[in-house]
Amino acid sequence: MTVSTRAPLTRPADAASTAGAEAAEIAPKLAGADFRSAWRTLLALPSVSAVMADSLRGEVGDGAVVNAVGVIEGLGRAGVPNGLVYALTSQIFGVQWPLSASARSPLEPYRDGLLDGSIVLCHALTEETGGSDPLSMRTAATPTDDGYRIDGRKAYVTAAPEADLILTFARTDAARHPFALSSFLLPADRPGIARSEPFAKVALPEVPMGAIDFTDVAASDADLVAAEGSGLAFLTSTTTWERALLMGYAVGGMGATIDRAVDWLRDREQFGRSLGANPLVASHVADLATIRHRVRTLVYDMARRIDAGTAISALATDAAQVKISCAQDLLAFESAAAPLFGARSVIADSPHAGQLTTAVAASIYAGSNDLLRVSIARDLGLPVEN
């Protein structure tokens, strides 16, 4: 990981407000747009374009990561749909930054397409038989005279139906040990690669999810992200980045929900007075603000530590704790917010529709919370196994 010596970028409050102002006009149009159109519109915003460029340089240390979190917060606060903000956050932190920080810089040939949105990335790890136990994966890269032949199926992959470039992992050794996996970056139009139709999902619907089949796919050494056998180590890097920062996608949306709640409760009258004048109701809004503050503080703290040059490998356990805490807080937030809007929170086309299923999903993606708890306990010294 390279630490930049450039002058610090804008403060997070500035980044969030700037991105929010840019996104305010386009946000209502994104809700009903197809993913590819919405993606390219989002990436055309100057703040987002700058963050994409920073992530593709792979450098930290100049406030770039904190600035990226600020931009993402601003997009959510402006009303950009949750699924799009999630997709952007996942691609930037879970794929682009760790790949660009790697020694081979494999994304460089695709830089222009990634910047303008004509190339979409996906991170294909999970299989039908599991995701949190990568050493159980069945996708295999069999050595050949000129490289490898990859066979297998990846499931529940964010952006898979639209992906042009696939970061995937395959077994290069049949044994179960830390050097059994390798990571590959493959174009989706490589013969033998087939992407599924989008799954019908009830969380983060603005970004598609699907499966990817690999059937006798030819891969060369040039397709390896790093040396053969280093796939688990690289996976640890991508998941640590993601667990540390992915929940930043929710910070802006939580702020927007609080804004709507304050407006609604101030204007809505019941029993001869504003609902917001009721101390019990007001305390619930205060709880929402407290939860959001906690999530925001944790994510920005991780961003600052990465910008300070802390090795990603040293953040794995802290990142897992941040992910668990923020996921639990998001569920608590949505559970507390929904009753404030009454029946409108369960009407699909209401501006106050709740996001409970999206909040539940947070305990599943980027490593299930229960398995992360086992890893944390093991790191603390307990003799616990998965």
Automatic annotation (TrEMBL):
Pfam families: Acyl-CoA_dh_1, Acyl-CoA_dh_M. Keywords: FAD, Flavoprotein, Oxidoreductase. Its cofactor is FAD. Signal peptide: none annotated. Residues 122-217 form the Acyl-CoA oxidase/dehydrogenase middle domain. Residues 229-380 form the Acyl-CoA dehydrogenase/oxidase C-terminal domain. GO terms for molecular function: acyl-CoA dehydrogenase activity. It comes from the Bacteria. The keyword Oxidoreductase applies. Belongs to the acyl-CoA dehydrogenase family. This is Alkylation response protein AidB-like acyl-CoA dehydrogenase.
